[in-house]
Amino acid sequence: MRGRTFLVYAVLVSLAEQAILLLVLAWVLPWLGLKVPSWAVALLMVALGVYSVVLTRLNYRALNQAPILSPGIGARGKVVQALAPRGYVRIGNELWSAQAAGRHLDVGEEVVIVRMEGLVLFVAPSRG
């Protein structure tokens, strides 16, 4: 979906969700003998609107990122979970399971991919 289309879709879905919630709060709960103050309903609607806007922006940004099919040998990344010997590294925008090809590697260290077996990357410390 393109930007404007995605935004219109997200707004329509959010409005539908809020309409359903309003129906429940206005008719179903009073029918069951539960009364909700109007200020609470208004606060809930505003909170849901803000929540929808934030999620829409995050989702749109995530949808626009190109996926990495498979990082190549020599690609660089950063350790996000210590490799002792297994952990996780971030290559581009993706987290990959990785194993240190040598010594223990700490969080934040720059690494380079030396080989790949299945979905496990074997990495070594980056030089420079």
Q: State which percent range the strand residues make up.
A: 25-35%
Low-confidence stretches: none
Strand and helix order:
HHEEEEE
Structural class call reads alpha+beta
Folded structure, characterized:
By secondary structure, the protein is of the alpha+beta class. It folds into 2 domains: 3-63, no CATH class; 76-125, OB fold (Dihydrolipoamide Acetyltransferase, E2P) (Beta Barrel), CATH 2.40.50. 43% of the residues lie in helices and 26% in strands. It has 2 helices and 5 strands. A 5-stranded mixed barrel has the order 1-2-3-5-4. Helix 1 (3-31) runs antiparallel to helix 2. The longest helix has 29 residues, at 3-31. It is elongated.
List keywords for this structure.
alpha+beta; 26% strand; 128 residues; five-stranded mixed barrel; OB fold (Dihydrolipoamide Acetyltransferase, E2P)
Draw up the topology in text.
Elements (H helix, E strand, L loop, with lengths): L2 H29 L6 H26 L12 E6 L4 E6 L2 E7 L9 E8 L2 E6 L3
Parallel strand pairs: 3-5
Antiparallel strand pairs: 1-2, 1-4, 2-3, 4-5
Helix pairs in contact: 1-2
Question: Would you summarize the structure shown here?
Answer:
The two termini are 40 Å apart. This protein has helices at residues 3-31, 38-63, and strands at residues 76-81, 86-91, 94-100, 110-117, 120-125. The protein is built from 2 helices and 5 strands.
